[in-house]
Amino acid sequence: MSRARFTCLFILVHAVTASAAEDTLPRMPWGDPDLQGIWSNATVTTLTRPDEVDKLTLTEAEATAVEKYGLFGEEARREIDNLPEGDLQAGENVGGYNAAWIDAGTRVLRVRGEPRSSIITEPLDGQIPYTLMGRGRFYWQGYKWMTRHDNPEERPDGERCIVGFGSTGGPPMLPVLYNNHYQFVQTPSEVLILVEMSHNVRTIRLDSEHLPEVVRPWLGDSIGHWEGDTLVVRTTQFHPQQNLRAAIKHQVYMTSDSVVEERFTRTNEREILYQFTVTDDSIYTQPWRGEMTLRTAQGPIYEYACHEGNYGLPNILAGARQAEKE
What we know:
This protein has helices at residues 3-22, 60-69, 74-80, 132-147, 312-325, and strands spanning 37-40, 110-111, 114-115, 120-122, 181-186, 190-195, 201-206, 221-227, 230-236, 244-246, 251-253, 259-268, 271-279, 288-296. By secondary structure, it is an alpha+beta fold. The longest helix has 20 residues, at 3-22.
């Protein structure tokens, strides 16, 4: 066989093999990769890297230790239910959740099989790269949350059941203490993501244009397109009351004009590789990036009856009025 004929045969075989591999991905009737289903990003790995860790990738032994002894590990979950005997003392912190309420995941985040110490991959230290002004705005917004109780509108969106705590609805969509499920539904022109926490729905319009700048949806305005088998989504025009996204597992400050680019790539039947980049020169020294693995969830999404069970907000305001009287 001549060298030229051998080369042609090699290319043909390689092309057939690659095509066969692509065909294993679930696809919609119109050919786009099928992202539909219920997915979870629950993990004990946090957005930012713990101070005592200086690398992104952990060994399996280190991952096992985090899953058992880490901040949200097995021992910490067990300790939550370790209450003292007798009645709780009035005026003391009685806590907010027992272990039955928590679904923060039990395993360290693994991306391409690698155990990770943080969701953030860049900068290399695994931290959000605030400018001095950006960090100041972060603390100032947090101070206002802690000290202002005159009306419901001054309280965080999560307390008001408008959006979920932290950045669970995103983007970027980050795991919180519970309710870490997302349901994807697709049409040829839209991808919709139902967020379990507070049942917000992200509507990603494909190959479209952004809304007028005066329109500021709670979860921003998302435009998507396909690059090969990857769904690329650009979101900006966030609602100004979404600037500080604070939860027990992460705290992120963004502005109404921050830009988030997300990339969704279904890698097999059970996983979607989720990558994101956050850009805002007004508060960050550089863009910061992260990646996670979305895994197929077991079972359906149940109703999150936030309003029906929300005794916290009226009690916060009533407590503030009582404090003023005293």
